[in-house]
Amino acid sequence: MAEIATLILEIIKCVAPPTRSCVDNHRKFKENVEDLKNKLRILEGRKEDVETRLQDEVCSEKQAKNEVVLWLQDVKKVNAEIQDVLKRVHSASYFSRARLGKLAREKIDVLDAILQRGNFPEGLVVNKPATTLPIPVEDLEGEDTVKEEILGYLKGNEVPMIGVCGIGGVGKTTIMKHIHNELLLMESRFDNVIWVTVSYPLNVVRLQHEIAKRMNESFPENEDEQSWASRLMQIMGKVKSVLILDDVWHRFTLKDVGIPSPTKENGCKIVITSRKVDVCQFLGCEIVKVSPLSEEESLNLFLDRVGRDILQNQELGEILKLMVKECAGLPLAIVVIAGSMIGVTNVHQWRHALNELRERLRAIAEGSEDQIFERLKFSYDRLQDSNTQNCFLSCSLYAADYQIRKENLVEQWIDEGLVEELGSRRAMLDKGWTILNKLENSCLLEKGHSEALIKMHDVVRDMALRINPQFMVKARMGLTEIPDEHEWTENLEKVSLMQNEISDIPLNMCPNCPILTTLMLQWNSKLTQISDCFFANMQGLKCLNLSGTSIESLPHSICNLENLTTLLLRHCRQLKHVPCLAKLQALKKLDMLKAGIDVVPEGIDILVNLQYLDLRSLQLVELPTQILGNLSHLQHLTVYSKSTTSKIKGEEVRGLKKLETFQAQLYDLQDLNNYVKSNHFKRLSNYWLAVGQVEEGFDPFINNFSKGISLGECEIGGEDSVVLPDDVQELWIYRCRKFRSLSDIYSLQKTTELKFCSITGCEEIGCVVDMVTSSSSFINNLGGLWLYKLPNLSVVVNVEGVEATSPHIFSNLKFFGMWECSRMKGLFSLELLQGLQNLEAITVWNCQQMEEIIGWEGEEENHTADATTTTTFTLPKLRQLNLQNLPELKRICPTRGVMVCDSLQQLQIEECPKLRRIPLVGNVRPSPPAALKRISIKPKELWESLEWEDPNAKNVLQPSVHFPTY
Ligand SMILES: *[C@@H]1O[C@H](CO)[C@@H](O)[C@H](O)[C@H]1NC(C)=O
Ligand SMILES: *[C@@H]1O[C@H](CO)[C@@H](O)[C@H](O)[C@H]1NC(C)=O
Ligand SMILES: *[C@@H]1O[C@H](CO)[C@@H](O)[C@H](O)[C@H]1NC(C)=O
Ligand SMILES: *[C@@H]1O[C@H](CO)[C@@H](O)[C@H](O)[C@H]1NC(C)=O
Known about the structure:
By secondary structure, the chain is an alpha/beta fold.
């Protein structure tokens, strides 16, 4: 019946407008839909690129630009709309096609527009507004007089430019960071405090862009340095700013960059830090010399690191003081040398170290740059273990002042073969992290801007590069061309050209670097081709990183790299052609995450040393069977493609005795069941196994998944229909038509570690857990529950007729979300409430019949019965309550009840026209929750009609309310 009605409607709609365009649209229908699909793919690609780049670039000092954030939101929205159109296309009748064709055309225009907006030539991130952001910095030891002197000049009118000079490691940058942070507190003196790290070499264009970014400005791409300079001059002329240029090495003129000369009149100031006095003099700076620390200050700093207890042993104390003397008052040397002595309590060891340090310094002229190197090198040598030393040196492959992600660094050491082979990946990762800790504790590496990051002091990095002159490091220097062939000398061991703008490697370029082991070219995102013979004379190459380049094919010379152990091709989205890899017999790791290939590279099946294989490429069509048979060393195997056609047979994997991480699409339920029954999963430390279609909300391309199963369009429910691993932690159920309740999955009842469950698009499910037929113990550890598009769901937990329910149901639940469950009338019954004490967030959107959130007693109950007593409910940890588009919602909790939720921070009430009473109170009743900081109300009028327990609540909360207009 309904279909006929729609058909008639379609006819009316289609016939009413001029018929000709109807026919036209028909003809174009296919074209349009294809076009739409293609464009959508491009858009998805671009979105992923943007997201990946953001992951790499966002840190505590940089944030995504607003336009980027907005764009990503729009992409999501448009994507959903188009998916919807495509679904309808799938089941379209003849008549509706015409209209859909037109709709498709419209959507194409929308896509074009959004694609256009998706170019971010000026980059994706901006520095977080300087005005709000102090730079994290260690405490300042001594140097107070210098600091006050500089601050004095900055506050006064006489000295516009200050040059802070001193040898590397004396603490110039640290002093300036403290000054920077203090200037931020003195809001009235300057409009703007701008910090730019210049480093070596001076790149005027970069400098211009950095300064502009700090001023919230960007330059048009198509102009040149000079016009940028005049733009900058204008922008900067308008504000009273302090410009701090840290670590300047070369002379330059302000005018060339576009920096107005600071004068008494414009009130601007410039501070430059440099190891070179002549650079500061050239610019006309007042020189402030940073002198080394006094003996007392040095001793304090040293003791801060090694601990004061050491002085209790008098003999040791004496040696220590002599050692401090050898540090010549250089904070960096003190910190690093002290770092190498942490935990040493033996007098002989101390005396030996002292002698050694003196011995080294004797040969070097007092006060020369070499002395600091020698002091730092002393600490490096004390690492003793050559693996740890090599790991340290390898950090210098990153750009100066770069915040390195710890995780990547550890992985890189393994990839470079710097962590000894230990039989399992987990053991090697543990070893890598241990080395990292050691380097951090010894102060050879410094804390980064967040827990996940680490960095190398520029002077330490100089030292590392000096220890190993066989490195060529030109990372993030804005290179547009690859260094000339003559720079590729025969003795090079490692080359890093990462994060440049190199666009191609000329045809005839075949550098002769027979002992080169590591070559990093990642994120030269403009690199489209590599000359055919480029790798021909790099026989020793072990680790090659081409991630994030735009190459379309790998040159043939790669086939002969018989010593290559690591080949990284992540995010090589354009990559289509990979030659036969059969000769790369040493290969241990092949990473093609999100590469563009659609077939598995030839020859993989005989790379018997492979330990790590990531084939989660975007377009992979099919995975040949039997490919895994000889790869018995595999520890990490991840295979996926967007088309979900590259499946693996569970039984092929059972032979892989060393596997630790496994992600794949299996053939079918039977295949999954057999695999699980084989108990192979028990050796895995993480897995993610999917059968059938995967839910759109899940991102299979992430690396830290736990133990998850995804079931799409499967027949589950009933005796043994699906066998789940007993340690499963995440369960995703997607469009399983006959699925009725988690309680129907027998194997699930035996699990105890389920932490997350998402159920989407299952037509028949009536309740999530059915206490009538099963116990609820398997959900006791559940931390997150998402329910989406379940048209028949009427209760979350069915307790009908059950005598006593367990107070532990959902006792670990933190996040609950429900969308488009149109039969739900009440969310949680009173019985469930006692278990929900850990709940932190509730989201309920688009549920047409939802009447009540907490305390639902079924429809028969008379809600006004006990209207005279006030019942109190508590959700002590609730931080977020989001209610959107619930046309029937009348109550948050029963009529006279109040809900105590003192932790509530965020409240959203949008399009809930029948809701009047907001029974939410904090611990101090009847005041609203004290933490409530963000309230979103739509439409605006609703705010007026809401009634709070506290008559004064609206006044109190007014500043936190906003009214979205989307
Ligand atoms: C830059 O923009 C941010 C937020 O958009 C603002 O807080 C900051 O004050 C702006 N800074 C300058 C220098 O205009
Ligand atoms: C290779 O490059 C990728 C992308 O930047 C990075 O995540 C990874 O750590 C690099 N690995 C090595 C060994 O250089
Ligand atoms: C590469 O490996 C071969 C044999 O596998 C070995 O003879 C050769 O010395 C290695 N080359 C380098 C430069 O390490
Ligand atoms: C795999 O191993 C088997 C037995 O060891 C061998 O016969 C077969 O040739 C190997 N396959 C490949 C592709 O190397």
